[in-house]
């Protein structure tokens, strides 16, 4: 039983959501995010997967119920599935309600099933365009068909909810599709500041 006082913010609200970056590395070099010849942190300066497990587990013990893993691109981190397996134990015990991932989708076709098997039910895929030439220009190294293959992996290989952020013509759209027939789709738009 957890007897530790929960984390609270300056407005006396309990903190139940944590976003953790597990790497600064990415397999894309998006023009708005990274230089093409990027210099990354030395690996010795990053938390090990075991240290990330201890850190995230400590936050779960302090009342965090939703954990989002980000990067760079989290799925390019060597051994990342061992970290997700470790976090899966918190889902099994009920200490953690939700483990989610933000990804560029490049590795999703390879990892969707193992992530689902570990209890992940929501993945956000950042996607700037559905036009192949624009995608290549924006990401420099990315391949749109590879990303779409991960998003379109047949059910039940994909998580129940898939999200895509689309930036185009002055607005940002989030469209959600699902392999769960009882779920619904949502579209949200807002103006970009560019």
Give structural notes.
By secondary structure, this protein is of the alpha/beta class. The chain has a single domain (17-191), classed as TIM Barrel (Alpha-Beta Barrel), CATH 3.20.20.70. 27% of the residues lie in helices and 22% in strands. The chain contains five helices and seven strands. It has helices at 49-61, 80-93, 108-117, 132-139, 144-151; strands spanning 17-21, 66-70, 98-103, 122-126, 161-168, 171-178, 187-191. A seven-stranded mixed sheet has the order 1-2-3-4-5-6-7, with helices on one face. Strand 6 and strand 7 form a beta hairpin. The radius of gyration is 18 Å and the shape is globular. Residues 157-165 and 168-194 have low confidence and may be disordered.
Topology:
Layout: E1 17-21, H1 49-61, E2 66-70, H2 80-93, E3 98-103, H3 108-117, E4 122-126, H4 132-139, H5 144-151, E5 161-168, E6 171-178, E7 187-191
Parallel strand pairs: 1-2, 2-3, 3-4, 4-5
Antiparallel strand pairs: 5-6, 6-7
Q: What is the assigned CATH homologous superfamily? A: Aldolase class I
Tally the structural domains: 1
Number of helices: 5
Task: Bin the helical content.
Answer: 25-40%
- Cα-to-Cα separation, first versus last residue: 49 Å
Fraction in beta strands: 15-25%
What CATH architecture do you see?
Answer: Alpha-Beta Barrel
Low-confidence regions: 157-165, 168-194
Q: In the CATH hierarchy, what is the class? A: Alpha Beta
Q: What is the alpha-carbon Rg in Å?
A: 18 Å
Order of helices and strands: EHEHEHEHHEEE
């Amino acid at each position: 039983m957890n007897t530790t006082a929960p984390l609270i913010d300056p407005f006396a609200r309990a903190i139940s959501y944590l976003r953790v970056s597990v790497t600064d590395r990415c397999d894309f070099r998006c023009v708005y995010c990274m230089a093409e010849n990027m210099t990354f942190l030395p690996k010795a300066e990053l938390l090990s997967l075991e240290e990330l497990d201890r850190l995230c587990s400590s936050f779960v013990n302090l009342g965090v119920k939703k954990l989002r893993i980000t990067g760079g691109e989290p799925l390019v981190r060597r051994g990342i599935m061992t970290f997700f397996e470790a976090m899966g134990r918190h889902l099994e015990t009920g200490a953690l309600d939700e483990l989610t991932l933000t990804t560029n989708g490049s590795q999703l076709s390879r990892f969707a099933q193992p992530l689902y098997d570990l209890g992940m039910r929501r993945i956000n895929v950042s996607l700037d365009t559905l036009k192949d030439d624009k995608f290549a220009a924006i990401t420099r190294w990315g391949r749109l068909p590879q990303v779409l293959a991960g998003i379109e992996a047949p059910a039940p290989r994909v998580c129940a909810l898939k999200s895509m952020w689309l930036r185009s013509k002055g607005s940002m759209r989030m469209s959600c599709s699902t392999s769960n027939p009882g779920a619904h789709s949502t579209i949200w738009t807002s103006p970009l500041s560019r």
